[in-house]
Amino acid sequence: DGSLELVKVTKRYGETLAVDAIDLRVPAGTYCCFLGPSGCGKSSTMRMIAGHEIASSGDIILGAQNITELAPAKRGTAMMFQNYALFPHLTVLDNVAFSLKMRGQSKAERYRKAGEVMELVDLTKFASRLPAQLSGGQQQRVALARALVTDPGILILDEPLSALDPFLRLKVRTELKRLQRELGISFLHVTHGQDEAMALADLVVIMKDGRIEQAASPQDVFHRP
Ligand code: ADP
Ligand code: ADP
């Protein structure tokens, strides 16, 4: 199953202790929002879960597998980047299918799966466009499709709404929640917005100085007597 467990996960950069022995359990199919001041270790935690950085110590367990030191493509996680990181010379379809190419799937299978995911995020009509021919919101959907095409058990979103205008932000927020429910996987969503966390999260994690201060339902975190 897709339950995630962090056991004493730690990240040091030289003298900086960015993440300080955190423990966390996220059951499969949870919408989990991470909040906390800039520099408290949210991004470092996400990068360790996604495998873009290796933990200095501790263990990251997904389902029955210890993924602490696995390569990003082998862990069953996917990350949507803040700047979308699309390939400018590839069409939308090829951008989405690309992650599967690295995983050695046949061309027919890659395009079938890419088509399915593009349908899911309403991108089908833009399949043959280049990223530069899309709006910011559309580019973000390509980045989302590219992350989802690998069938991850965990999708990581680092401030996915912060670059969008207020109208689009609400629309994408609703869309993310729908997708998470429909796919039944866990989303780990870093945000500065309490309202965002309140609207989306099953589980809210508050970080401070590299530690987890609180991990509870939004009701418990935001409405304490
Ligand atoms: P947040 O995402 O909550 O803003 P980060 O995980 O980006 O926090 O940063 C946590 C701490 O680690 C900060 O003190 C930051 O300066 C430091 N840090 C983050 N990435 C690096 C890096 N690549 N090299 C050195 N220090 C880093
Ligand atoms: P965030 O929006 O998460 O706070 P930052 O602006 O702190 O992001 O960091 C942006 C990038 O710079 C990240 O890739 C991070 O690894 C890197 N970084 C952050 N702090 C440091 C640092 N003190 N030294 C080197 N790299 C850093």
UniProtKB/TrEMBL annotation:
Keyword annotations from UniProtKB, A to Z: ATP-binding, Nucleotide-binding, Transport
GO BP, sorted A to Z: quaternary ammonium group transport
Keyword hit for Cell division: no
Domain ABC transporter: 4-225
GO terms for MF: ATP binding; ATP hydrolysis activity; transmembrane transporter activity
Transport listed as a keyword: yes
Superkingdom per UniProt: Bacteria
Record's GO cellular component terms: ATP-binding cassette (ABC) transporter complex
Membership in a protein family: Belongs to the ABC transporter superfamily.
Name the record gives this protein: ABC transporter ATP-binding protein
Organism encoding this protein: Aureimonas endophytica
